[in-house]
Amino acid sequence: SSDPRMNRRLSQLDGITLISNSDAHSPRKIGREANIFDTDVSYNSIMEAIRTKKGFSGTIEFFPEEGKYHYDGHRVCRVSLSPKETIKYDHLCPVCGKRVTVGVMHRVEKLADREDGFGLSGSPGFHSIIPLPEIISETVKVGVNSKRVNNEYFSILESLGNEFRILMETSLEDIEVAGSPLLREAISRVRSGDVYIAPGFDGEFGKIRIFEKVEREEIKGQNMLF
User: Fold this and answer.
1) Keyword Glycoprotein, does the record have it (predicted)?
2) Quick one: which of 216, 213, 159, 214 has its CA closest to 183?
3) φ, ψ dihedrals at 146, nearest 5°
4) How far apart are CA 125 and CA 56, in angstroms?
5) What is d(CA 91, CA 106) in angstroms, rounded to the nearest whole number?
6) Which among 220, 125, 120, 118 has a CA at the least distance from the CA of 168?
7) Which of 23, 97, 102, 107 is the most buried (most CB within 10 A)?
């Protein structure tokens, strides 16, 4: 898994429009990643936008750190390493001495001819998102597949429209009215990338959290005062 920020570190890709498409394991997960077009909904218009970048507005992405092989590491020893740390340890697990499994970020570092954070002028942007059911799950502290999360999810969709619009465009005030102050804060943080990330490594999915437990309780407490 990668995103445009990672891919743009390789100058050989400068002339290529970067698109993003979901691997859909179930109907519920169709469209988790997507492309944004400002053009007619037709094959010719879409292909022209991809070729020329005119009418192609960017992509919607998951945080790549969620991937099972983003960082290097050794799952048995619970060791997760950045590429620089892997080089420091000579590709060996600092706990048991076995070779670590090298991840996607290590490959990016090896191929890159630009520093992290490089932005190509004129290149379409991208949005990093967390699916709305997962955000709701964190705000109410019950499982993402629970009845409560499912009910709140469809209630919010009925009030505010489709999920991508809610995650990227809907006013925070409207989100608070349809959901809760905690949901408003959660979506605000996702929009700004202000989340806690533990990158995946050696076959283990990464973990993305919006709140620390103390923060969550503080926000709830503040809103109870008004």
Assistant:
1) no
2) 216
3) -75, 160
4) 10
5) 11
6) 125
7) 102
Residue 214 has pLDDT above 90, yes or no: no
* All structural domains of the chain with their residue ranges: 72-111
Query: Which amino acid would we find at residue 57?
Result: S
Q: What angle do CA 6, 197, 95 make, to 5 degrees?
A: 95
CA distance readout (Å), 219 to 90, 176, 210:
44, 13, 12
- The token pair at 54 is 């005119």
Phi-psi region of 117 (alpha: psi -120 to 50; beta: other; left: phi over 0): left
Nearest to 209 by CA among 139, 160, 119, 152: 139
pLDDT in tens, 27-64: 777 778 999 999 999 999 999 999 999 999 999 999 99
Phi, psi dihedral angles at 173 (to 5 degrees): -65, -45
Q: Put residue 19 in one of left, alpha, beta given phi > 0 → left and psi -120 to 50 → alpha.
A: beta
Cβ contacts of 83 within 8 Å, gap of 6 or more: 71, 72, 105, 106, 109, 110
Q: How many CB atoms lie within 10 A of CB 85?
A: 15
pTM of the model: 0.87
Q: How distant is the alpha carbon of residue 23 from its chain centre?
A: 14
With 70 as the cut, is the pLDDT of residue 138 above it?
A: yes
